[in-house]
Amino acid sequence: MNTRNIEILVGAFVVLAVIAMVMLSLKVSNLASYGDDGDAYEIQAQFDNIGGLKERSPVSAGGVRVGKVSAISYNNKEFTAVVTLQIEGGYEFPVDTSASILTAGLLGEQYVGLDPGGDEENLVAGGEIDITQSALVLEQVIGQFLYSKAQEE
Q1: Which of left, alpha, beta for 148 (phi over 0: left; psi -120 to 50: alpha)?
Q2: φ and ψ of 11, to 5 deg
Q3: Which pLDDT band holds residue 85 (cuts at 50, 70, 90)?
C-alpha cells in the first residue's frame, strides 16, 4: 500500500470516530430522540420539590422507559413545581396513577417513576396526576438525622 491509501484510511477512521463521539454524547445527554413523538401525549404532575430533575429526564414505569420530562415550570398560586410528562403513544395509565421522583443509583440522575393504579379510566392528553411524591433530597435527610441525634443528647 502506498502512503496516500494509508492517509485516506486514517482520515476515514478519524471521521467515523468523531461521528461516534458525537452520537455518544447526544445519547448520554438525552438530546438525541430516536423515537417518533408524533403519537405522544402530555400529562402534568405537581411536586413540592423536584430536586435535580431536568427537562428530557426519563419517565419510566416498571423499569421501562415510557416517556420523558418535556417541561418544568412553577405554579405561583400553589407554590409547587409543575412537571409536564410526554408519554409515548403506546402506553396508557389509569387516572389514579402515582408519580414519584426517583434517583438512579445512590447519586445518579433523577427520573420520574410512574406507579399505575387500578382505575378503569385512563389518563388522556392534558390530564393531571394527583398523587405525587417529591424528590428525596440527600442534604435534607442528613440534616434531619443530625438534628434528631442532637436532640437525643
Answers
A1: alpha
A2: -60, -45
A3: very high
H, E, C per residue of 107-130: CCCEEEEEECCCCCCECCCCCEEC
Beta bridge partners of 68: 58, 86
Is the Cβ–Cβ distance between 26 and 32 less than 8 Å? yes
Query: Is a pLDDT exceeding 80 seen at residue 153?
Result: no
Report whether pLDDT(101) > 80: yes
The phi and psi torsions of 67 (rounded to 5 degrees) equal: 175, -160
In 3D space, the residue among 72, 69, 64, 73 whose CA is nearest the CA of residue 116 turns out to be 64
Neighbours of 35 (CB within 10 A): 13
Residue showing cell 419517565: 59
Task: Specify the DSSP element, H or E, that contains 32.
Answer: none
Cα separation, 112 vs 109, whole angstroms: 10
Closest CA to 30 of 99, 109, 114, 136: 109
What residue spans define the domains of the chain? 1-32, 37-143
pTM: 0.70
pLDDT surpasses 80 at 105? no
